[in-house]
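seq as requested:
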Amino acid sequence: MATKSAQIDSTVEIVTPENIAFHYQVAGPFRRLPAFILDLLIRSGVFTLFMIILGLAGALTNLSGIMGAGMMIVWFLLDWFYGGIFETWMNGQTPGKWVLGIRVLSVDGQPINGIQAIMRNILRTLDMMPVGTCMLGLVAMTLNQRFQRIGDIVCGTNVVVEERKWLTGVAKMDDARVAQLANYIPADYRVSRTLAKTLAAYVDRRRFFSIPRRREVSRHLAEPLLVQFGFPLDTSYDLLLCALYYRTFVADRSDDERITTEINTSPFSPTTPTNVAAQASANPFDIVQPQSGK
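struct tokens:
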């Protein structure tokens, strides 16, 4: 009987109604707290400004009651509708969320609507119970993988880390074994446009991944390539994709000749990918795949 694999980081898969799957990193309490504090400071600043204006208006008109009533109305509007209005018009973000790079989405990956935005912010009062401690919200967030507080659970929303444009040009390959492994990729192998885009995205983003996540993400693309190239099946998926990226975007013919010379003059004198893997056995995540990861 198949068992569901355990979540190895804070990335979740969200499937849209169009049956398209996206991966998002969910924002935990330590990512959301600074955004909440920043929004609280903004609300406090706006409230203080209104207090000054109402105080001057009350002093000029000798209607001190205006100040008290106006303060209550302004605080009520800021406390209950600040987050809802901004999240409606800023596509799931408040100024604090925008600065911290997080966004509210529906659990199906769609943008939130006005009702969800307003209700999840009104229900924050429940999440903050007992008053000022936020214990109910924190307990709820620890009980689910999406870090949803009560307001998120009721409204069908979750907070994710905003996707950034990570592609920053040709990535630099610092590991010499990437170039060595690239030398064994068949010279007549042609990378398709789709595969080239996939390799570029993976190599540029891999620095943000944990080692288990690298192995998990690269496995689906690397396993067929290992068979196609005739490489040992315990070759690292991550290093294979890096090597193919190197061959596609970095290496030229002079590089290949230089690498071949270095390999042939090396005291190890590897003649097959297996020998290259043997040189890297000191770090099982570099070239050779650990048996437990298969």
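Residues 29-61 form the longest helix (33 residues).
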